[in-house]
Amino acid sequence: MREIMVRAMYCEMLGYDASFTYIHAIKLAQQGGVLEKRVGYLAVSLFLNEGHELLLLLVNTVLKDLQSTNLIEACMALTVVAQVFPKDMIPAVLPLVEDKLSHPKEIIRRKAVLALYKFYLIAPNQVQHIHSKFRKALCDQDPGVMTSSLHIYLQLITESPDGYKDLTGSFVTILKQVLGGKLPVDFNYRNVPAPWLQLQLLRILSLLGREDQSTSELMYEVLDESLRRAEMNHNITYAILYECVKAVYTIHPKAELLEKATRCIGNFVLSPKINLKYLGLKALTYVVQHDAKLALQHQMTIIECLDHTDFTIKRETLELLFRITNAQNVTVIVEKMLDFLHVSCYVPMKTLTFAPDNSWFIQTMNDVFSTGGDLLQQDVPNNFLRLLAEGSESKEEDDQLRLYAVDSYLTVLKGDASHLPQRFLQLMSWVLGEYAHLQESVDQREVIRLLTQLLDQRSVSSETRVWILSALTKISEGQTDLILDLAEGLSSSQDTVLRQQAQELRQLSQDSQLYEWVLFHLVALVCVFSSQVDSSLSFLDGFVSEALAAGAAPYKPPHQRQQELCEDRALNLEPYSFSLPVSLSSCSITDRQSPTLLSISSGLSGNSTELSQKAGSSTLILEGVKRVWGKDGYLQQKETTAPPVDEPSAAVQPSGQQEAAERLEPQLEPSTQNQDKQQLASSLFVGLGAGSSITTDSFLYGSLLEEEPATSISAFGHTPKSSTANGPAQNKDTKEDRRANTSHILGGDMVIVRPNTIQDKHPPPGSSDLTALLPADLKDLPHSDVSSLTSDPSLSMSSCRLFRDEALLLVIFISNCTETVIKDVAVQLTCEELEVCYSFFSVTHRPLVVTTEEYGKLWLSLSHDVKQNLKLLTDARDPLRTTLNALKDALQLHVVDIIGSEGIVACRLLSGAPCLLHCRVNGAALAMWLRSPHPVLPYCILYHCQRALAQTPR
Amino acid sequence: MIKAILIFNNHGKPRLSKFYEHYTEDTEQQIIRETFHLVSKRDENICNFLEGGLLIGGSDNKLIYRHYATLYFVFCVDSSESELGILDLIQVLVETLDKCFENVCELDLIFHVDKVHNILAEMVMGGMVLETNMSEIITQVEAQGKMEKSELCAFLSLCRPLSFSVPDRTGRHRLGSQGLRRVLCRP
């Protein structure tokens, strides 16, 4: 089998179809011993791609092998994970791969790091919680692991250099150590210590130091060092030198280094070795953006390179020339480029912005089009036409340019036009159609004759014919006789488009009134379109609301639909288990994919329960009512309780709403259906008008990213009444009670309530029981611990958060530690003093108190779900309960129920959107499954859960 | 990132192809053909880099190749890789192959596709350079080979009564190995 598989691999490589062996490759990986397994995995990684359906069969094997104690098996599994695993399977293996980061063997750690990097590339949000582990990998004692973690950092830093400035020091230190030969001799290649590692580091440093003086200063020394060290005569040292030079020119400049780098470039360019010359040119190209003078020193070399036999060198030189193009040298450079164009189809069009005059410009463009022709990218002629049509500021110049274009094209057309590329012909006909009237000295009949002549040529493609014909339409005014002949000839053409156009042309030329009317309106239409396009399609609002009132479902954007479809098809990658303790027995389910009716009772295995839950989200629990939805919308209706208006309307959907009708999801009880539809309609239009739903989105993202909330907690000053002393021996407390009453989450107004009571009590030393001082109406509310904010010998300040249903109250205690009476305390609070993220979260979330049954129903109705494994607090006797309680304390969740190894938890946004969490103990991890109507909310909550668990002391 | 690693001989016959991005069967074959076409036209004394063909991502990608005796080793990489670095990576790959097969030749690549792939997997993983340290690569490959051998021995000892024998290929003709040697020995 093994031998056969190897042969199949070979066949596949030679281009023969060996798809029948795919399944055997998977089998081999599943069942064989190490030897077979290896071949099996290898075959799988060669045969299957990320989207292949057979990959599902591999998941279990990979999971098993990842847990295997056999090093080689684990290695193979990691390799295949990094090679072929798609996005939706990552959660299944993520925790196992994560564990591998702390594996004793470095080869495993290294592969795990790379696998995680791959995951990061595919699905960045799934690995965001392990960034700290990446840091650990960076500090790994094995240089190999550290090297592979640099891949991740290179990527991260490319995306956002600002977030990793603090690591500059570490990178510099690593590079110093490498240069100093601190690595084992094994890592040397041609006596250069770990060259690839150096390359990587230099690239990271240049990214970090870009436009940042302070960071750049950290690395001057080490860059100098590597420039100095890399003076051996070997390829790899040149690679390092090149990277150094690039870094030196990218970071904040330092004269001394620049000088050295310039010398290096000189060496490169002058080198007889062709590879080095290439690099030198590349470096020059990069450098001249900063310092154009540098090119002057190497003028002669550059000119030599232009005539070099090597294509790559030539092209790189042109690239360089393109960078140094200016108004003076443009003619020469473009000439060179045109020469090059004869052999290749590459020319950077931007050069032409320096064109000295119109005639030259048009002539050059003619050359470009006639030689480059159909090989040019589509946007080149388009841009050219736009330039002609829109013109610059002065009308005169534009007209002159157009005139010149018309002239030159007429000349071209008078010659032999048969060999010209189609694209050039199209362009010419358009220009002639638009602007031929500008040229008064040429008879329009002549133009028409030329174009007709073109039309008759056999080499002209039918697409070009259409262009020509529309040009003729534009200039045909008053030339009826010519046109009629033409139209007559073409109306028997085989091409329907041509025929139609010819017909139109004939009609138009016969009726001059119509002609004028059409042209006028055409122009007007173009003006209207270019000036204002109603992108929100508001003129359709009426139609949409009618359709909605008639029972159509609100429109969902394609990605959401796609997502839901995917969810429907998604497989449960976790081992089967009993799912939620929810009674499903009375729930009849319809599967969207098939019109057959399924009925699933409770106590099913996880997979089918999941299916039923998904389907349940679309049908929801109409007791005794059966609905069947197929791919084509309504297939059958037996709805008895729904209002009669629902049926016909949904059946007679207008075609535009067909899609919407397909997606029709009665999420609501029949009795409230109409009213809720109104609501849906209004929310739909809010979405159209880019309203609140979007703000909620960004707001949630905001909290995800730990940005400062939009809520402005403005600084406020406040002068409390001073307390009066009751007795000289007693300490006096001034207690201030402030209610930060955010009336609406996004509103962000703070209402400050004056202290309603002034209580003087004896606070116990240490004042841990300040909460006892709360006013009566607040005493029963759940509250966080009192945390001390600041204190000095005379005053101490602490705060406490109270969670009310609709608001978060921030209570600030100010206590007088001395025995003197304090009058007029002025308090100023700015938002920096608040733990912004934390309080922000508490502002937005409230526990959602539901019973298990309600939870079950709600669960079924929610559509967006997210699964992830979290850390479990293990050291307690009942880890699940401990973990959930920790979460509850930290995040204001409501623990609905805990049954065996599963727990259900709920919370909601202040605005009402619920989020349900289902937790299950899965080995040492907590398998978390979140659902919410809001697409982003689960991610947000998941993120906070991760944070909370990470912060909890073990 | 490395997009693909191709090895083909002077006639354009693929000897090893590994793609780190997904292409369809047909495209892969076309890429190999196109690459061969691009690379084989080039003289010995011009540089080892060229723009990628149209199929494999156009001008954003680069082909970096080396020619040893009968074989072309081509790496297709994007702009984030260092050209000379990759060039030396090819050298490392070839030297490693040479050590593992003791004087490598084209036939080794044909008869031990799996082993070559395994060596490659130790060097490059999912398009990223994993290991450039030659001795480390060889250690890994040998460790795996040893494990295989022990398993094979156990298997053979079971089969001995049936007089099972392993096919022996030591006497094969070594194609172009001398040329390869020569290139390898060049400083």
TrEMBL record, chain A:
One of its GO terms (biological process) is vesicle-mediated transport. InterPro entries: Adaptor_Complx_Large_Subunit (IPR050840), AP4_complex_esu (IPR017109), AP4E1_C (IPR028269), ARM-like (IPR011989), ARM-type_fold (IPR016024), Clathrin/coatomer_adapt-like_N (IPR002553). Keywords: Golgi apparatus, Membrane, Protein transport, Transport. Transmembrane segments: none annotated. The keyword Membrane applies. GO terms for cellular component: AP-4 adaptor complex; endomembrane system. Residues 846-950 form the AP-4 complex subunit epsilon-1 C-terminal domain. It is a peripheral membrane protein. Residues 669-679, 720-731 have a biased composition (Polar residues). Residues 639-679, 713-744 are annotated as: Disordered. Its main location: membrane. It is found in: Endomembrane system. Gene3D superfamilies: Leucine-rich Repeat Variant. Belongs to the adaptor complexes large subunit family. Subunit of novel type of clathrin- or non-clathrin-associated protein coat involved in targeting proteins from the trans-Golgi network (TGN) to the endosomal-lysosomal system. Adaptor protein complex 4 (AP-4) is a heterotetramer composed of two large adaptins, a medium adaptin and a small adaptin. This is AP-4 complex subunit epsilon.
From TrEMBL, chain B:
Belongs to the adaptor complexes small subunit family. SUPFAM superfamilies: SNARE-like (SSF64356). GO terms for biological process: Golgi to vacuole transport; intracellular protein transport. Residues 1-147 form the AP complex mu/sigma subunit domain. One of its GO terms (cellular component) is AP-3 adaptor complex. This is AP complex subunit sigma. It comes from Sinocyclocheilus rhinocerous. It is a peripheral membrane protein. Signal peptide: none annotated. Part of the AP-3 complex, an adaptor-related complex which is not clathrin-associated. The complex is associated with the Golgi region as well as more peripheral structures. It facilitates the budding of vesicles from the Golgi membrane and may be directly involved in trafficking to lysosomes. In concert with the BLOC-1 complex, AP-3 is required to target cargos into vesicles assembled at cell bodies for delivery into neurites and nerve terminals. Keywords: Cytoplasmic vesicle, Golgi apparatus, Membrane, Protein transport, Transport. It is found in: Cytoplasmic vesicle membrane; Golgi apparatus.
